[in-house]
Amino acid sequence: MNSTAKNQATLMVSKDQKIEMLERAVQAMSRKYEILSRATNDAIWDWDILSDCIEWNHGWQIIYGHKENNIPRAIWIDQLHPLDREEVLDGWHKAVGEHKLNWSAIYRYRCSNGTYKYTYDRAYIVYENEMPVRVIGAMQDIDERMLALQEIEKLSLVASKTENLVIITDANENIEWVNEGFVRRTGYTLREVVGKTPRFLQGPETSREVLDRIRASIVRGESCTEEIINYTKQGSKFWIKMNITPVFNEYNKLHRFVAVETDVTVHKEYENKIIASALELSSLIENANAVIIGVDKNGLVNEWNKQATVVTGYSKHELLGKKLTNIVVGSARQNFVEKYTDHILKGNTINLKEFEIINRKGAHNMLLISATPRKNVTGEIVGLIAVGQDITELTEYRQSLEKKVAERTQELNRSLEKEKELAAIKSQFASTVSHEFRTPLSTIKLSANHIRKYKTRMTDSDIDAKIGVMLKQVEHMTHLLEDVLTISRAEGTKIKTAKVPVVLVEFFSILKDQVERMNNETHTVELQFDLLQPVLYTDPDLLRNIFINLLNNAIKFSPGKSVVKVRVAQNAEGWCVRVQDEGIGFPADDARKIFEPFFRASNATIIQGTGLGLSIVKRAVDLLGGSIDVQSNEGEGSVFHVTIPTSE
Amino acid sequence: MSYSILIVDDTAILAEAIADMLRMEDLRVTLSSNGLEALAVLEHQRHDLIISDLRMPVMGGIEFIKRVRKNDSQHRTPIIVLSAQAEEASKRECIQAGANLFLTKPFDEQELLSSIKKFLDERQS
To answer: Under CATH, domain B4-124 is a member of which superfamily?
Structure first.
């Protein structure tokens, strides 16, 4: 500027005047420069390349704190930031090499206190003979601006490079800017979205309710954070968690909105899955076909499913928060329950324990319980879960089974006992039968040999007597044989009754004669009839067996008496025959066993017998579907009642 | 002189038949229907030989033999048992009680007669 002023002055008129004018002009210029350089805060410098000295104005001290305002260039170069130095010098050499008139550079320059300040340096280069001889420049302090710029650069780097979606709108919610994260996730370019409102990202599944909440916050000028469904350009939906913050200008007027959004689709899907499985689980618990009960650390109910209600009769809301022991467990079992609750809360499990509860109606149910401690996510025991199966019916079934088994065992034992008895009876039978046959056989043999041996010495009547003895013994044996056959037939109960019409009066009259004759007419059988129908449809052989035995017994057991009474009557139950004697009777104790084979009353030993007669009678009566009972007093005689049903 | 035989049997018809036979052999016979009755008879009258049944009312054969042998430690009176019980055990029991011979019914009357004769001959000598 000085040189320009001088050139202009050179063009001026007369010499003295010119000089004077020139001096005045120079002075004026110097003053202007002085004023100018004082008015600016820049450090203005003047480098005389030939002397290689740089001269500074006061800005040099103000900006950088350096006191020496005339320094060699080498010292100036020393103060350049080492990282910037090379670049600055390169730029200078390049400008000079190309004969540029202007040179500028931005660099950090060292202050007197050792710190660096960002500096914008601009200069004018003066050439003589194409060689630079003088440079005049100004160093401007741009430190604050650079720092602010760097801050903005960092911020915009964050905004544009973040994985989050960033949207900036104006006060009317028209998009001004979106970041790369937004472009990547939505598929929309910046150009496509600028000027639109972010509402175009919403779709059918976007929650109206959430949008209304966001709207309300925006209207109030408050920031809000919400999760919401957005759609990409391709139409696929994704979950975002977004924070919308209103930005106000210095006049506190709504300026724009900044929305920072995070893609939470994965979380959201996971969360939904967890919620779904939690719901499924709770429905499973609720609807399980098992009693499921939860109890907290204090023993208070916190789970109570449907089946628990079905089994106990108590509903969920009646039991929640209450102590189990007070309600469904009887007082007798409280200690038991508390003991087990403690046991489980200490981390143990119980498996398939039978456990009785009392339901609402007061009935007892048997549960088969398995229980485990319930832990939270950190593994701390917070209660217990018990799963039970109602086995009341099963228990009853088991008990009835056990009872049945016991009964069956008893039955088996009884039949085994019977079997043993039968075996004993059979061997007794064999020995009795052989005994009973041997005696008459001896008599017959003896009598026959007697005749053979002594017949020459015997009279006719002696011989007749012997033959009579033999015949009588044969008859006795025949009768015995019939008895034995009846017994053995009845043993197998294979005997078939052959029923024919029997005229009772005729039947008993014939029987009477037979029996009287058999017993040598010692007794008379008195018959009495009280009949509506004279004919009984029955098996005559069995009937004969019954009464021949009863009548023979009556006579045999009433020695010294002369009458046996028989009454044949008919009543509602059927035919009723009573056989009554006045004989020795038998003790009351024997009545129970009197019909058993080979049993002989305790007072019967003096009278010959096999013990078979009454057992034969009993079996014959059974075969006819009838019944027999006896009343007897020792020494006063016996009364037998035989009933035979009319039907069949 | 004739020997006297005591027959103890509750089956009268058989006892009679035996008695008939013995009488034909010139033996004297007393009948008794059980052990107790026979003991009473023996108290009044000595007998040279006893024939006894086993199963009898009031007092059976075994008990009767034991009682007889109690008063007759020398076994002077021979006892012949006639029993329908054919088992060895019964036979052994009788011999132990003091019986001299055990015959099973129906017995051979010839064997009975010769045994009686033999016992009586031994007794005489």
So the answer is: Response regulator (3.40.50.2300)
**Is the domain of A348 the same as that of A311?**
yes
Across the interface, do A457 and B24 touch by the CB < 8 Å criterion? yes
To the nearest whole Å, the CA of B32 is away from the closest chain A CA by: 14
Whether residue A397 is found in the same domain as residue A521: no
Spatial CA neighbour of A581 closest among A550, A607, A547, A602: A550
- State how many domains chain A has: 5
Nearest to A469 among B17, B55, B85 (CB): B17
Residue bearing tokens 């450090």: A43
Q: How far apart are CA A419 and CA A441, in angstroms?
A: 32
- Is A630 in the same domain as A536? yes
Residues A459 and A401 grouped into a single domain: yes
Structure confidence by residue, pLDDT tens digits, A476-514: 888 778 777 766 665 555 556 778 888 888 999 999 998
Closest residue, chain B, to A458 (C-alpha): B24
Task: Yes or no: say if B71 and A421 are a contact pair by the CB < 8 Å rule.
Answer: no
ipTM of the complex: 0.85
Can you tell me the distance from the alpha carbon of A123 to that of A136, in angstroms, rounded to the nearest whole number? 5
Please judge whether A439 and B11 are an interchain contact, meaning their C-beta atoms are less than 8 angstroms apart: yes
Residue A34 lies in a domain: no
Q: What is the pLDDT of residues A564-617, one digit of tens each?
A: 999 998 877 788 899 999 888 888 877 777 887 667 776 766 566 667 788 888
Among A438, A449, A451, A452, most B C-beta atoms within 10 A, so best to mutate, is A438
**Position of tokens 């006992």?**
A417
Domain containing residue A359: CATH number:
3.30.450.20
Q: Does the beta-carbon distance from B85 to A431 stay under 8 Å?
A: yes
Q: How many CB atoms lie within 10 A of CB A147?
A: 11
Chain B positions touching A608 (Cβ under 8 A) are 10-11
A342 and A475 within one domain: no
- Are A476 and A381 found together in one domain? no
Domain ranges, residue A54: 40-147
Residue A7 falls within a domain, yes or no?
Answer: no
